[in-house]
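User: Predict the full complex structure for these chains.
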Amino acid sequence: MAASLEIRNLHVSVEEKPILRGVNLTINQGEVHALMGPNGSGKSTLSNVILGNPAYEVTDGEILFEGKNLLEMEVDERSRAGLFLAFQYPVAIPGVTLANFLRLAINSRMKANDPDSKGISISDFRKLMRAKMDSLHMDHSFAGRYLNDGFSGGEKKRAEILQMAVLEPRIAILDETDSGLDIDALRIVAEGVSSLRGPNLGILVITHYQRILNYIKPEYVHIMYQGQIVESGGADLALHLEESGYDWVREKFSTTTP
Amino acid sequence: MTTTTRRGNAPAAPLYTRADIERLSDTHNEPRWLRESRLAAWEIYEELPMPNRDSGEAWRRTDYRGVRWDQVNHLPNGGQPSLQSVPAPMLEPLIGDEQGGTLVFVDGKLVSAQVSDALTAQGVIFTDLQSACRDHESIVRPNLMTKAVKPSDGKFAALHAALWTHGLFLFVPRNTVVELPLHVVMYNTQAGSTLGHVLIVLEEGAQATLLVDFQSARRDEQSVSVGATELLVGDAANLRYVALQDWNRATYEFNHQRGRVGSDGQLDWIIGTMGGQFVKNFIEVELDGQGANGRVSGMFFADHEQLFDHDTQQSHNAPLTVSDLLFKGAAKDDSRSVWQGMIKSLPKMQKIDGFQASRNLVLSEDARMDAIPGLEIEADDVRCTHAATFGTLEEQPVFYLMSRGIPRAEAELMVTEGFFEELLDRVPFERVRDRLRASLEAKIVGRDA
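Assistant: Here is the predicted structure of the two-chain assembly.
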């Protein structure tokens, strides 16, 4: 059975202000979806809610992952079940090295499956890290740096994709992974993501812009506006947005004047 | 039944008498000069009042009325202090397999001294202070409680000078480099009072690295430690000094520590405070010669009912001196911490650079942390900066780690340990860093101390 992420009639508020107003979306393993929309339409809220960020409150609706109620799972359980979010703004954690953190993340998975697991050996972990860092053109010294602490924008995004490569999720959400990247950095990051594509990985690419979709070609494109998905289509929908901008979306779907 | 004077605002005074000092001096068969210096300090002690919360800034936040002098007023005696009572991890070499030299004190008695022949051949003296007072009077006498910590520094400094029970003495002669780190363990198994001393003298151009571990076995009866540390760093000398305190939870500690640094000398001082019920620690660096450099790194973690009070001073007594102080601490449960820091400079001491920062992590609603930075600068061409910050454990880093599959407890542990990593990185011994991490972890997850 393909792992599917099913979002049904999802309503979410932040500090009692409704942000999402009935979102419906299904993503299966092997599929690549793009979620586009103007600023403030609720895209990042959706990604944070899927992972369980405590700053957001679900007021109605449900999210199912492989048929299980995701909203009843802790954040760490969601990750171990196979969900991944590449954050738009990854938080810096001084004093915690990328390597120590990722090793603990792997060991947490192994321990959840087998309480007696001793975790990954240091040499196996080192080999894994080197291989994955090489594929993302990352210097090996990265592993010893404190997580996102003093990283450039491009380094942060690459570190997110590195984590995705190491943790091998079944459904990954990339939240504006293209923002703040120059064209070379974008290419490296996007190629890194593309290399992970396959029948076992479903991807949701959240973006304003078409350009990342030139590297990670989606099968489905959705437009979010005012907390709802207002239009869905194929890859051509993204091209249409690139040519015409979001004004037609606003004209067609505006329910209230913000 | 004993009546106590723990009433009102006045802490009770210790019950020692001049006779205790004479008895101590007799027991050790001390030279006359030492006995006289003890008795002179006793005179000063008797003149000074017990500090209380009305005794000025230094003691305003420091309530030690819980100490029961009637219970602790005896020096450890009897028993058979032995190396076997010391926990094995404390006796491991600091790095690799080689030890430069190790002294182990148990209940104030030297139970083991390992000093390599190479050190002795270099003219290095690394021994207990009692023997040093007898065998090396010409070096010890001019330096013992005359230059760094003085009896007049305070009631507890005077008490220490009068009644110190044991100590370590390190002397490194001119231009001599001690390559391997030295290690001293001061371990107590019995309750009561210990007054341990640290005296380090580095002559011009000398270099050494030394770790002192202060620990005690778990006891329910109270103990008191009245300590003094003197670090005399000569011109162009370089001392790395790490002092880690992990007394049991029934211990009250009063500590006076001062380093003096000569021209172009360097003192790299690391202080870890984990144990004790109550800690009052004066830590001062005097930069005496042009170009002297002092770095002080302090870490502490208070939990349950602990009260840690660190009082630091960086004194720029010469031009072109540099001081850098960083204290990082956490407090959870009902604990309390105080840090007061002062940067001072004499007039006309130009081109000095002083920095102090206090970073505080408040881990429970009932914990309280105070940080009071201060500057007293009488020169104008100077750069002096200070900063104090307070924070709680932030949810977003924890969420980030959890979003990668790490359970909450481990995520919180990782973020909290990360807070201290900057200081752990400064500890030059890997095994000691691991020991500190384990001790932090026990506090963070609340394993009983």
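Residues 394-449 of chain B form one domain.
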